[in-house]
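Memo to structure team: turn this sequence into structure tokens by end of day. - J.P.
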Amino acid sequence: MEHRNNRLHFHRLTFNSLPLVLPYLQHSGSRSCDYTVGGIYQWIDYFKYHYCIVADTLLIKGVAEDDVKRTAFSLPLGAMPLDEAVALLGDYCATEGLTLEFSAITEERIDDFRALSPTAVTELTHWSDYLYCADKLATFAGNKMKRKRNHVNKFIATYPDHHIEPIGKENLDCVRTFFDRLCLTKTDNGMAGYERNQTRRVLHDFAHYHGIFHGIALFVGAEVVAFAIGEVTGTTLHVHIEKTNHDFDGANEFIAQAMVQHVAASHHIDMVNREDDAGDPGLRQSKLSYCPDLILKKYNVIF
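Reply from structure team:
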């Protein structure tokens, strides 16, 4: 293991470095939003992401999802066996005077970490991803989804002049204006404020994500009333952003369904990841109302 003798050099993860890490993210084998371009780029400053590529393996250093004061690493992605990557990062942390901690490790990999005898494994109760069968969200079929179908039908009946457009250069300014107006009554404080600022950033750079991000806007007449932006990895659609003017009853359910239908028309997807609730009770209730088929748990692991 010659690479253990080489000092790791972590570089700040930026928009320009995303093409370097994209191949590793695409082969993560996980449905977690943490291994997507959007999942990283939207939170790139909040979690202070830095990266290092060694032995054809991507190492990401940031902070713990439940405490930004603690340095933590993401799951190593690439050719290096997990035990070697943990040992390598252990050497790095010893040199830097840090505790070796991994954050947001999904339950599908937690046994691999337990086999390496960590000091502690703690569930991140506010950071589980909510996953849904794509067919269910595309149709809202079944008795449990009856209320969702009713909301969509009400929207269609109330606003017969509605239509969906893919987000592109022809309507991007309209989407930006809609979002700016939506934020007029919001204060840009804390995590919610950071998320809104990053949504502006994604809209500003949207043209650079051609082939990675998929976006749709819902219009009533000439007015944007909702939009959604997502990303496909493997057979999973990750819905990174979904914004709605709630004055239009049913627009929220309509855009959620339309986004799945839009992406399914060009990609084979079997699951939709609507991501975590960040501990927000209202957001949690909203995600539960769509009847998740899987809640993907995540953990912090300390050595």
